[in-house]
Design a protein that fits this description.
The protein has 156 residues and is α+β, with helices and mostly antiparallel strands. Helix content is 35%, strand content 26%. The chain has a single domain, classed as PvuII Endonuclease, Chain A, CATH 3.40.210. It has a six-stranded mixed sheet, with helices on both faces. The chain has a two-stranded antiparallel ribbon with strand order 4-7. The longest helix has 19 residues. The protein is globular, with a radius of gyration of 17 Å.
């Protein structure tokens, strides 16, 4: 019989359990468990071959070494039955250092179905565009607005 030390669990193993618990919690309460960001960061790193930054790194969540070096903020959204048009990307702090923002979209059992990426200047320009208090003051935009300035990077 193998011990836990001989067969250690991986992040992927643990997140598989977290996903199942998060879905079960949502079914019981109608509220998300609050793990969407962590799952999204892990999935983006795995699918896009990124290196996750250390916890609480200001401004970015991952680093891209393949191709030009980039510091990437990762935002994640999940909805059991898919995302509606009114869903928003969480706050993007443009005063922090980052080169791009990735948006990881998930549904069902936290399965990723799309990843979008927008460059820093495009994000700043959209957030500073006149006409929306939530964009201008809160650093937020809708998913459709983000997609309009971004490129779909997964799946290709």
């Amino acid at each position: 019989m193998k011990t836990d030390l001989e067969n250690p669990r991986t992040e992927k193993d643990i997140l598989a359990e977290v996903r199942a618990l998060a879905v079960e919690y949502y079914q019981l309460t109608g509220k998300p468990l609050g793990v969407t960001g962590e799952i999204g960061e892990f999935e983006a790193a795995e699918k896009m071959e990124l290196e996750l930054a250390t916890a609480r790194t200001e401004g970015y969540d991952a680093i891209c070494h393949g191709g030009p070096y980039k510091r990437i903020q990762i935002k994640s959204r999940w909805k059991r039955d898919g995302l509606g048009s009114g869903q928003r990307v969480s706050k993007i702090d443009i005063l922090k250092e980052f080169d791009s923002v990735m948006l990881v979209l998930m549904r069902g059992n936290y399965e990723v179905y799309e990843i979008w990426e927008a460059g820093r200047q495009a994000v700043i320009d959209r957030l500073n565009a006149p006409g929306s208090k939530s964009r201008n003051e809160r650093g937020q935009m809708s998913i459709s607005q983000f997609k309009s300035i971004a490129k779909k990077v997964w799946p290709m």
